[in-house]
Amino acid sequence: MAIRPIIVLPDKLLRVVSEPVARIDDGIRTLVADMFETMYDAPGVGLAAVQVGVPKRVVTIDATRGEEEKKPIAMINPEIVWKSEETAAQEEGCLSIPEYLDQVIRPDRVKVRFLDVDGKEHEIDADGLLARVVQHEVDHINGVLFIDHLSKLKRDRVVKKFTKAAKRIAAE
Ligand code: NI
Predict the structure, then answer these.
(1) Which position among 20, 108, 157, 162 has the lowest Cβ density within 10 Å, counted as fewest Cβ atoms?
(2) Assigned CATH topology for domain 12-171
(3) Is 137 assigned a catalytic role?
(4) How far away, in angstroms, is 140 Cα from ligand 1 center?
(5) pLDDT per residue of the chain (172 residues) written in tens, 0 to 9
(6) Which pTM was predicted?
(7) If you measure from the C-alpha of residue 80 to the centroid of ligand 1, how many angstroms do you get, rounded to a whole number?
(8) Residues 43, 101, 68, CA angle at the centre, nearest 5°?
(9) Which residues lie across from 88 on neighbouring strands?
């Protein structure tokens, strides 16, 4: 297992629609193991493969907090098959947009279908933080970022800030 570098805004790969996984092989299983290690190290509650530079439809999630027993979930080719009409607002962040947090309104509950690392299909009902993380990560594999759910003014401001920072680093 290895910690992989996480790409940050304005990396263009974050806007790519990730490819479905056709075959779950050892390469995918290694990717998943590395993603868990990278996610826990960050630390974060979710990570999409594209964030470590691999545009495949793979996400890792652990929405438990603090002293709770860890509950890692790897989702391959996840698909949100139902969303509640009720929404909830909660502060969100992203490992690819470090140190920026904002309130995001999303459906409160979702049903998600996915394959595990053994190729077995699962469907789970998620609410609370898990529902939020699932939606955030499925957004990632569709090239969507949480700032896309904010006003254009806010989004432009964040993109500009990160673009400037990237230029500054490139110039050093
Ligand atoms: Ni994110």
Answers:
(1) 20
(2) Peptide Deformylase (3.90.45)
(3) yes
(4) 7
(5) 899 999 999 999 999 999 999 999 999 999 999 999 999 999 999 999 999 999 999 999 999 988 889 999 999 999 999 999 999 999 999 999 999 999 999 999 999 999 999 999 999 999 999 999 999 999 999 999 999 999 999 999 999 999 999 999 888 7
(6) 0.96
(7) 17
(8) 40
(9) 106
